[in-house]
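[step 3/7] inverse_fold.run input=structure_tokens len=788
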């Protein structure tokens, strides 16, 4: 019998975010402990700020949410005293609502798990029917806006979110109609208690309780989560909040709550609406929390210095929840500043941008409009009224390179007639595929790079990432990358062909042996072509992405495949450095790998868009190419891989001949790897339903292909072997779900959690991730810890 490790339960590893004490924890805990002393709270409510602190910093406590009624009862006992709390007539109405609420919550979620198991086909059929109806109305007859379209896996989630929006709006409207606007001002220090106000607060508690249960159930019923019920309570998107409103209804039934109720209603509507679209509220929620905090601090001042009767239960919630939210936002921005402040070294640089390849439709940048390319190697002449002339004058030199050669000086040992050895320098000239423009950018134009690569748990096997800042917009202008100043500069630390370690240029100075120094320098100057091939692969992927967005009646969101350029730093020095640069995906959402460049058994990824893109690449290139290994954040993808049908397997030689059509590819897995990926895609039912509507003929032919492969006994044996080798991949890919990332509300740094899981051996997963060897953003190739 296999012994489970500590922290692991039946049904898979439980991911609980480990709490590492910080200076903030000490300060926050001190503030939480001192708040009740400032306002003179009762003994029970004095524990409430500490409870908020613990639920914010140790979210794993929500996995034991069944104990919440006991905590509420203990607070009631301490607040009211033993004599009062022992009276059933007083204790029962105070404690029973929370007991019933939590019990019914667990019962409803367990029921939804069972219903999903017993009625999977009926639930999927209902969701597919609604999705098909919306597809008909939104894309075919166009009688409804496209924004109303929902894919089948989001139908039940959308119903739950819509119900919460309608209920929140209705509550606030009726609350104002029946209770009127506040007559004592927005501060509410008089503490008036109109008749029936307590019932309205209990109604608000029931509203949050019912809608949170509905959303929880919808995720199970739609198959968006498969984790244990207990663990699901600790997911950032599913953490219950109705317990907060239970305490407010119990201890704060005053008209003073008009402003916080209004703010919470608006926030609920906005977050629920964006949650349906897997988006985060980065504008309205910060403003509302800011107003909440200012209001609460002013009330705190009045309570401490004068006679303000504002209820402590609401005051503590406003200060703690708003404070934690603002701290999370500050921490996220500080982490970003700390990372990018290291990009402080101004550099002379050349950037190489692809402009033509016989097999790739290169992106036409705005500044190229009306420009005729000169002869090979000549400087491009711009008219006086051209934006480049106006913006940069003569500072920027642009050269057209129809045949691009990169020259590097190497050295070798030569034996003399007398038997002695001398080191002889020579120039190695390497031709790059495609035609390029080379832009020379002096230091004054503000390209700044970090000397050291980012240190992260996501560091990869082949590449590392250096932060790059485009402080004056020159890189964004020439690459037409938009206005964002942050870029990821990727550098190989190991030959992608599986060969030598390149190391860091700065490490060469620490070497003392002349032979080692010479070998280290030669390794750097030889690794050139893969950078240009990677850039062209992303250019080809971006071309396919643009064509994908042009598909008529596309039932998924528009996507973006990032384009890239080559950055050559300090080209006039002995050891120029090459980087592959692209816009940095600046988002709190974790970087995900949505499909693989190998076989994934039983793949059931909820986010079908990347897999549709892979199939589209296969169909649109007449089965010559398959774009796979798609990764990124939400609907912005990067760093793809291609398999071609012109190689039999990955063991065959790559396209080294300069006249070969696929000179832009390296690490091509050929037909063998293409079949592996396609076989995994074929097993996705939801993907079939979407693709059958768009490409019915191609999908029928595709199914016949797969059936023919499976009919081959040898291929069937290979499938069985692949399934054994890749069994661990299935759970990771089945949990790539943007529904669980949307609407977290800024309280959880999802990127940080993923990074923490990579760095340490802590089992960290409420969504039952199994991390595996894969690619990711900060290094684009990462080692994943697989927890046994």
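[step 3/7] decode complete -> sequence:
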């Amino acid at each position: 019998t296999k012994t489970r490790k500590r922290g692991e339960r039946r049904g898979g590893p439980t991911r609980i975010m480990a709490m590492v004490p910080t200076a903030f924890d000490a300060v926050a805990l001190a503030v939480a402990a001192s708040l009740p002393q400032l306002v003179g709270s009762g003994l029970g409510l004095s524990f409430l700020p500490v409870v908020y602190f613990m639920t914010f910093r140790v979210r794993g406590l929500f996995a034991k949410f069944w104990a919440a009624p006991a905590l509420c009862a203990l607070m009631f006992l301490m607040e009211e005293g033993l004599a009062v709390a022992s009276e059933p007539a007083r204790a029962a109405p105070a404690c029973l609502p929370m007991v019933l609420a939590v019990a019914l919550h667990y019962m409803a979620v367990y029921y939804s798990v069972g219903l999903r198991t017993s009625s999977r086909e009926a639930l999927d059929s209902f969701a597919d029917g609604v999705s098909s109806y919306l597809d008909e109305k939104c894309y075919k007859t166009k009688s409804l806006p496209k924004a109303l379209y929902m894919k089948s896996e989001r139908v039940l989630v959308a119903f739950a979110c819509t119900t919460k929006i309608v209920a929140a709006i209705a509550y606030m409207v009726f609350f104002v109609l029946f209770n009127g606007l506040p007559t004592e001002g927005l501060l509410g220090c008089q503490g008036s208690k109109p008749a029936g106000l307590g019932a309205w607060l209990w109604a608000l508690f029931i509203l949050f309780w019912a809608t949170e249960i509905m959303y929880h159930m919808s995720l199970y019923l739609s198959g968006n989560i498969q984790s244990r019920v207990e663990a699901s309570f600790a997911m950032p998107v599913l953490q219950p909040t109705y317990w907060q409103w239970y305490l407010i209804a119990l201890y704060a039934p005053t008209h003073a709550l008009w402003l916080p109720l209004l703010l919470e209603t608006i926030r609920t509507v906005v977050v629920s609406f964006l949650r349906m679209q897997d988006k985060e509220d980065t504008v309205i929620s910060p403003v509302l929390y800011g107003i909440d905090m200012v209001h609460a601090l002013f009330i705190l001042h009045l309570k401490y210095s004068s006679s303000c009767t504002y209820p402590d239960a609401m005051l503590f919630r406003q200060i703690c929840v708003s404070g934690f939210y603002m701290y999370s936002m500050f921490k996220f921005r500080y982490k970003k500043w700390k990372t990018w402040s290291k990009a402080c070294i101004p550099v002379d640089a050349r950037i190489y941008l692809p402009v033509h390849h016989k097999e790739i439709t290169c992106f036409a940048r705005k500044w190229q409009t009306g420009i005729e390319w000169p002869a090979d190697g000549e400087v491009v002449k711009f008219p006086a009224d051209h934006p480049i002339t106006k913006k940069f004058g003569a500072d920027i030199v642009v050269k057209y390179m129809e045949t691009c050669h990169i020259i590097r000086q190497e050295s070798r040992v030569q034996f003399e007639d007398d038997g002695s050895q001398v080191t002889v320098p020579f120039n190695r000239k390497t031709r790059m595929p495609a035609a390029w423009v080379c832009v020379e950018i002096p230091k004054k134009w503000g390209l700044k790079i970090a000397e050291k690569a980012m240190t992260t748990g996501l560091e990869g096997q082949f590449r590392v990432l250096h932060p790059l800042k485009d402080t004056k917009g020159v890189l964004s202008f020439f690459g037409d990358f938009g206005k964002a100043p942050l870029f990821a500069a990727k550098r190989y630390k190991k030959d992608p062909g599986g060969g030598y370690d390149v190391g860091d240029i700065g490490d060469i100075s620490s070497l003392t042996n002349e032979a080692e120094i010479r070998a280290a320098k030669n390794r750097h100057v030889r690794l050139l072509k893969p950078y240009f091939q990677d850039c062209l692969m992303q250019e080809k992927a971006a071309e396919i992405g643009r064509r994908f967005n042009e598909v008529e009646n596309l039932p998924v969101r528009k996507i973006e495949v990032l384009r890239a350029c080559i950055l050559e730093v300090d080209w006039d020095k002995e050891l120029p450095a090459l980087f592959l640069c692209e816009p940095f995906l600046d988002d709190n959402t974790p970087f995900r790998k949505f499909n693989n460049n190998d076989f994934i058994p039983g793949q059931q990824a909820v986010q079908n868009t990347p897999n549709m893109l892979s199939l589209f690449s296969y169909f649109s290139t007449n089965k010559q190419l398959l774009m796979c290994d798609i990764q990124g954040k939400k609907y912005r993808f990067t760093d793809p891989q291609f398999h071609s049908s012109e190689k039999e397997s990955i063991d065959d030689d790559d396209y080294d001949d300069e006249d070969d059509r696929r000179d832009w590819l390296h690490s091509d897995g050929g037909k063998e790897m293409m079949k592996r990926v396609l076989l995994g895609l074929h097993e996705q039912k939801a993907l079939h339903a979407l693709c059958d509507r768009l490409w019915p003929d191609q999908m029928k032919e595709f199914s016949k292909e797969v059936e023919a492969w499976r009919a081959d006994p040898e291929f069937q044996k290979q499938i069985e072997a692949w399934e054994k080798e890749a069994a661990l991949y299935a759970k990771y890919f089945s949990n790539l779900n943007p529904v669980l990332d949307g609407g977290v509300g800024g309280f959880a740094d999802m990127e940080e959690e993923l990074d923490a899981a990579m760095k340490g051996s802590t089992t960290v997963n409420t969504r039952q991730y199994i991390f595996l060897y894969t690619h990711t953003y900060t290094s684009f190739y990462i080692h994943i810890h697989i927890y046994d």
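[step 4/7] annotate
Confidence is low (pLDDT under 50) at residues 1-18, 756-788.
The chain has 24 helices and 19 strands.
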